[in-house]
Every structure is written in C-alpha cells, then in structure tokens.
C-alpha cells in the first residue's frame, strides 16, 4: 500500500469556526502545560518525563477539564507526541554539536492546528465532483464541515490520519490515504531518457537543449512585499493597522507558495509521464543556501549578493521538485537516477571525453580541450544521463569511493528503482 496525501479546503460558518478555534486553543494549552511540566520536573527534581508519563495523566485531565473530552483521546495523545518529537530533535542536535533549539512555548495564534493519528473520531464523505463533508466527533456534538477537494484514487482508498490546520484565517484538512499500487499507477505517455540540470537562470535544462524558464515568483512579488513591510514598520506593533498589514504580508507569502507548488507539480508530472529514465544530480539545498556572513573574527564577503542568490535558489523549489519526482516516478513506472555531485562533478566534467574542466560560476559555456563545446547546464545534464545509463553504476555495484583521477569513472549513485534503466 502506498501513502498519498490530499488536502481539502474547509468552509466553516461563524459558529463552526469559533469551535475550531477553541479546539486549537485547548491543544495549544495542553502543549504548553506539558512543556512546563517537563521543565519543572527536571529543574526541581532532576527527572526527565517521557511521552508515556504524560499520556497516562490524560484521563485525570479530562476528569477535571470536561472541555477536553470532545477533542478525543487520540488527538490529545498526538499533541503530546508532537512535543516529545520536539525534545527528541533537541537532544539529537545537542549530540551532533549543532544549535540546540530548545522547544518553546507557543501562542495560540502561532499554533497551526491538531491531528488525528488514525481513522477513529472522524470521517470524510465525498459528495460527487469536488464537494465533500468532513465529520468530526459523534453524536449531537459532532461537527460537520463543508469541504472542497478531490483525489484521483477512486473508492478503494483507506484514510490513515487527519490534520486540521489554520492559515491566514482559512481552514484546511490534510488527509493521508493508504492506496493500492494499482490505484496509484499512471499510464506513461513516453519512454524518453533525459538528463536534467536544475538551476536558477533556467529552472531546468535537459540534455537535448530544451529548457524550462524560471518563473521567479518571489522576484516578481518582491516590490509589493517590500512596500507592505515598509508600511508595517511605520505602525505601532500590536495595533489594528499593524495586524492588518501582517495579514496582507502573510497572504502574499501564501500566494507565492501556492504558485510555486502548482508550477512544480505540473512540471514534475510532465517529466514523470514522458520519461522512462530521469537523471539528475543530488542537490543539498541546505548547504547551497548557507549564509556568507561568517563570524565576527572572520567576516564573510559579498554577503548581500549571496543572500540574493540564496533567495532565488529557495524560490525555485529545487528540493521540493526532487521530492515530487521521487514518488511520481513510482506511479508511472519510471526511474529517477540521482548522481553523487561531489564525486561525479557534473558542472566540471566533459560529457565527450569525461575529463575535468574547472570553471567558475560565472562561466556559462563549457569549452574542453577535446573540442567539445556546449552550454554549461546542457553539458551537466548530458553527464548525469551518461552516468545513469552506464552499466555497473550505483551503490549496489560499487561500495568503495571513487579514485581521484581524470579518467572516466563511475559515481556512487542513489536511485529510485521502479524499472531497470536501459543498458544497466
């Protein structure tokens, strides 16, 4: 069984919205109370409370606070589990020597929502077309919400969990579905073998020379965003105008995110539907967008320029594109080949002679001593495609690191196997 997520937009009336807001406040109160309990237990008695210790106190809480009863035991447990995951991440970062990031208390305005971790306590009914009804709870106190949304998997799906979120005054329900492989499958319309190099100048460049322009959603809305932020900076924090401008800024950010997500879904679906093999390189966006500020003793150079480049990289959504391709190729029976960037060096390697040709980032044309000349991104796309179609590549074929030499070598790769690449 595969897992797929579908999101419904909810349309509660005034009373239903007030009730949902009250539920979010209660979940936020439980989260903050559990966090305070953990802090006090360790500070006063040196005891580290676990998730199970706090979960066992829920019956006592519901006996004293009757308003927690209608939230459901499983939803309350999931809120406590959310706090436990935050502490696990905190201890993991401490052990790794990273910035700890201790769990913080949350305001109910910044508490996004709550989750039902299993199908108990709620039900969604599709009414035909894109209309649906989400029913939460049972009996006279059940909450029935009008919803809009649809999935493509038919009637044989099984719901797994439900997450209710609030964004800019609007409510959404994200449902994880357990779907059979047959229901997920899509008929592929082509059998192309394509190498693709993702970037900022062009969002994608293929080995055959085809390109996809970068829509630059953030850059297009940047003047309007800067104007709103300047206006808000002149207002008193907490005033009515300050809050109104904050809502406008949040709405603009959400619009940018929706445009980016829609663009990525369409382009990655087209790739998965038309290609039997998609080859690209691993991208570590977190490393690529690291700040150039440096330290007080060793300050960085060209910090503003690097900040602008980081903004464009994040705006392109390259990491999100890889995530989408990783599950869409499974649905279409294609193969996603991810080459190891540090060992293969697609931007520096020649697709004709396989030699290394060092280039700066400003050099956009690949010129090799063997006579091969091509646009830099197209050459890199050809290199990763050759790496994907070369027999014997992959982690299973070779576990030793590549030798440092100019000759043709095989990179350690990671693949999403759905079909076997031709020539492999």
TrEMBL record:
Residues 322-382 form the Cas12f1-like TNB domain. The keyword Plastid does not apply. Residues 185-291 form the Probable transposase IS891/IS1136/IS1341 domain. Residues 414-424 have a biased composition (Polar residues). One of its GO terms (molecular function) is DNA binding. The keyword Nuclease does not apply. Keywords: DNA recombination, DNA-binding, Transposition. Residues 395-424 are annotated as: Disordered. Residues 397-411 have a biased composition (Basic residues). InterPro entries: Cas12f1-like_TNB (IPR010095), Transposase (IPR001959). It comes from the Bacteria. One of its GO terms (biological process) is DNA recombination. NCBIfam families: guided_TnpB. In the C-terminal section; belongs to the transposase 35 family. This is Putative transposase. It comes from Paraburkholderia atlantica. The lineage of its organism: Bacteria, Pseudomonadati, Pseudomonadota, Betaproteobacteria, Burkholderiales.
């Amino acid at each position: 069984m595969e897992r797929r997520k579908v999101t419904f937009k909810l349309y509660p009336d005034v009373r239903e919205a007030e009730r949902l807001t009250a539920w979010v406040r209660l979940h936020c109160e439980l989260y903050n109370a559990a966090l305070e309990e953990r802090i006090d237990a360790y500070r006063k008695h040196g005891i580290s409370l676990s998730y199970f210790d706090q979960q066992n106190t829920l019956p006592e809480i519901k006996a004293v606070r009757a308003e927690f009863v209608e939230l459901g035991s499983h939803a309350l447990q999931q809120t406590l589990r959310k706090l436990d995951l935050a502490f696990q991440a905190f201890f993991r970062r401490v052990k790794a020597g990273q910035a700890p990031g201790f769990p913080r208390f949350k305001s109910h305005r910044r508490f996004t929502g709550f989750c039902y971790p299993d199908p108990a306590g709620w039900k969604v009914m599709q009414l035909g077309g894109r209309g649906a009804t989400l029913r939460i709870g049972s009996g006279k106190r059940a909450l029935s919400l009008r919803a809009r949304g649809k999935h493509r998997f038919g009637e044989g799906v099984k719901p797994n969990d439900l997450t209710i979120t609030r964004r800019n005054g609007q409510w959404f329900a994200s449902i994880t579905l357990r779907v059979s492989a047959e229901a997920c499958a899509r008929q592929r319309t082509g059998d192309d073998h394509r190498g693709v190099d993702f970037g900022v100048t062009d969002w994608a460049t293929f080995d055959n020379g085809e390109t996809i322009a970068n829509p630059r959603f953030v850059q297009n809305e940047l003047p309007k965003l800067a104007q709103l932020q300047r206006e808000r900076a002149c207002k008193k924090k907490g005033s009515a105008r300050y809050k109104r401008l904050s809502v406008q800024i949040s709405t603009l950010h959400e619009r940018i995110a929706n445009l980016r997500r829609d663009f990525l879904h369409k382009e990655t679906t087209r790739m998965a539907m038309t290609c039997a093999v998609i080859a690209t390189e691993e991208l570590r966006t977190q490393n690529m967008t690291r700040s150039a500020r440096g330290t007080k003793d060793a300050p960085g150079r060209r910090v503003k320029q690097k900040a602008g480049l980081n903004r464009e990289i994040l705006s392109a959504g390259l990491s999100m594109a890889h995530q989408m391709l990783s599950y869409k190729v499974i649905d279409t029976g294609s193969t996603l080949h991810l080459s190891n960037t540090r060992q293969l060096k697609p931007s520096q390697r020649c697709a004709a002679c396989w030699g290394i040709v060092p280039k700066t980032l400003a050099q956009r044309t690949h010129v090799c001593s063997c006579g091969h000349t091509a646009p830099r991104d197209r050459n890199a796309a050809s290199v990763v495609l050759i790496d994907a179609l070369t027999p014997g590549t992959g982690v299973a074929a070779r576990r030793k690191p590549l030798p440092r030499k100019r000759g043709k070598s095989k990179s350690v790769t990671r693949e999403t196997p759905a079909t076997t690449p031709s020539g492999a």
